[in-house]
Amino acid sequence: MDWDEFSGWGEQISRWAAEYHTTLRDRPVRAQTAPGEIAAQLPETPPELGEDMAAIIGDFERIVMPGMTHWQHPRFFAYFPANAAPPSMLAEMLVTTVAAQCMLWQTSPAATEMEGVMVDWLRQAMGLPDGMTGVIQDSASSATLSAVLTMRERATGYTGNREGLAGKGNLRIYCSDQVHSSIDRACWVAGIGQDNLVKLPTSGPRYSIDADALRAAIQADRAAGHVPAGIIAITGGTGIGACDILGPVLQVARDEDLYTHLDAAWAGAAMICPEFRADYWADVEGFDSIVFNPHKWLGAQFDCSIQFLKDAGPQLNTLKIEPEYLKTTGADVTNYSEWTVPLGRRFRALKLWFLIRSYGLEGLRRRLRNHVTWAGEVCEAIRAMDGFEIVTEPILSLFSFRCPGDDAMQQALVDALNDDGRIYVTQGSFGGRKIIRFQVGQFDTTREDVLFAMDVIDEVHRRIS
């Protein structure tokens, strides 16, 4: 392909993209294909000769698009959002075009320096203290793994990387029973092990960890010869939106000299709205590490996750490795590849720059506030439906409910709703029962889209019951 042809196809794809987004309401939210249906349409062997781009684009429409679940659909109420605001997509087009590998300052100074400024813009927007630094990770999973590795190294006197974990004792990480599975996986990868992830019960209206139980578990582990290494708290857990009360958790951590990490992957975005901070963000400045994903609720194209650090030193002591070929000489610069597990780095800061400048913080706040309000409205509408039960009340824009019937009926309703295609929801589990999760957060959803979901839920439930 020459560059004139590239330009022509680029224009056509751009027009296709605009039409796609403006007609999403006409498509089913979740892919309606059967397992194996897409693979069956693909040749078993690669082509020996190049093919015309028109044929490739035609097959994209014919084969690929029917197998896509539309995460940008305004009636996507499942999981958490993975939003892609138009300015963010344009920035990604530029990043893809320039195609830089931004592992070091010298490999793209603009990418490194903009990353530092964008992290600080969001630090200010979220009410975090001066002096807190950070790095853009690919996902909250990577940020959490970085924090868990730091906990491990700090607890072993920074000898684990060099000597291994043999003879270091059973390192223990503490969290609530509402944490995301990425916490479990981080403990696997870090060599700490599932059995040494201590999950404690939650209570209260926000399903917070019991600080007294946390303290007791740490002290019992010390008495048993184990090595407490860190505490992971949550603001906006994936299952039901659970939020730990941060101050008491931090007090236990200070008393026990433990490193702390806060998983605010979804709900952290809402902290750009000052009115939410008293309930969900009080005392946040005490955490050593905090993660939130602009690629969820804030509108940044996936992937883009920010890890804030009170002091970057412990994480750098854990992850920094500097062979001769990666050294930067003659300048005092930041190399963010030393802050993360991957060496290779994309220019993720550009989409934040485009996004924040295009909407301004107030434009982003308005969307988040609307989502919280509309989630409350649809929650009340479902509560009023005959036989329906609100299981967990709205935390920001997430709540859960049950329809009349047993657990099998809850799954049947979820499956029927998703097969119907007009909305998309997911199931969960709470208190030993299956629940139906509902979250509002798609960037371009409207009040009408959200309230329409209640009508679809009622209609489909009547059909299958």
Overview of the molecule:
With 465 residues, this protein is of the alpha/beta class. The protein has 15 helices and 13 strands. The protein has helices at residues 3-22, 53-64, 86-98, 109-125, 140-155, 160-163, 181-189, 211-223, 246-256, 277-280, 294-298, 313-319, 349-383, 407-420, 447-464; strands at 133-137, 171-176, 197-200, 202-203, 208-209, 227-234, 259-263, 289-292, 305-309, 389-395, 398-402, 426-430, 433-439. It has a seven-stranded mixed beta sheet with strand order 1-9-8-7-6-2-3, with helices on both faces. β10 (389-395) and β11 (398-402) form a beta hairpin. α5 packs across α7 and α13 packs across α15.
Order the strands across the largest sheet as they lie in space: 1-9-8-7-6-2-3
Helix content: 40-55%
Helix and strand sequence: HHHHEHHEHEEEHEHEHEHEHHEEHEEH
Could you name the ranges where pLDDT drops below 50 across 5 or more consecutive residues? none
Q: How many strands in all? A: 13
**Rg over alpha carbons:** 24 Å
* Percent strand: 5-15%
Terminus-to-terminus distance: 56 Å
Main pleated-sheet profile: 7 strands, mixed
List the topology elements.
Elements: H1 3-22, H2 53-64, H3 86-98, H4 109-125, E1 133-137, H5 140-155, H6 160-163, E2 171-176, H7 181-189, E3 197-200, E4 202-203, E5 208-209, H8 211-223, E6 227-234, H9 246-256, E7 259-263, H10 277-280, E8 289-292, H11 294-298, E9 305-309, H12 313-319, H13 349-383, E10 389-395, E11 398-402, H14 407-420, E12 426-430, E13 433-439, H15 447-464
Parallel strand pairs: 2-3, 2-6, 6-7, 7-8
Antiparallel strand pairs: 1-9, 4-5, 8-9, 10-11, 11-13, 12-13
